[in-house]
Amino acid sequence: MQDYNAQAIATADQFVIAAEVTNRGNDALAYAPRTRKNYARRAAVIEPVFAQIKHNRSINTISRRGLTAADSEWKLICGTHNLLKVDRTA
Question: Which pTM value belongs to this model?
Answer without folding.
Answer: 0.81
